[in-house]
Amino acid sequence: MTAMAKPMPVPTPTTQPFWDALREHRIRIQYSPSTGRYVFYPRILAPGTLADDLQWREISGAGSLYTFTVSHRPVSPHFADDVPQLLAVVQWDEGPRFSTEIVEADPGALRVGMRVRPVFFDYPADGVTMLRYAPAE
Fold it and tell me: Where does the signal peptide begin and end (predicted)?
């Protein structure tokens, strides 16, 4: 099958700091002093308090595999050449969860709770860096 161009995220003014950090192979997410916790996905007001106090802070990106699935069917035709895909949710050590894809891994070795590390995938033609995860071992 001929590979189709994959859809790429389009940063907005609210999400731009997240994408800018990924391009530098860093992870920055928002922190809310009014709630005392990190927040993800990027937004304008703090969840729960609606405070206008969100700050961008760098995190390590280390975390644990919260859940995953091995997809043998592409989520869209753009990903037909990528199956099986290891679709996952990672829980960052700082608290929030992040939907991603696991790379550099044997599907049979994945376990909920295992430690994972960030892996950055650059797409220079699109000016985007995507965040994926791999087993920490």
Answer: none
Place of tokens 């709770």: 113
CB 136 within 8 A of CB 117: yes
- Give the global pTM: 0.91
Distance CA 7, CA 99 (A): 16
Query: pLDDT digits over 8-56, tens only?
Result: 999 999 999 999 999 999 999 999 999 999 999 999 999 999 999 999 9
Is 114 strand, coil or helix?
coil
CATH class of the structural domain 60-137: mainly beta
Phi-psi map region of 6: left, alpha, beta (phi>0 left; psi -120 to 50 alpha):
beta
In contact, 68 and 86? CB cutoff 8 Å = yes
Strand-pair category, 115-123 with 63-71:
antiparallel
Name the residue with higher pLDDT: 136 or 5.
136
The predicted structure's pLDDT at residue 1: 47
Domain map (residue ranges) of the chain: 12-59, 60-137
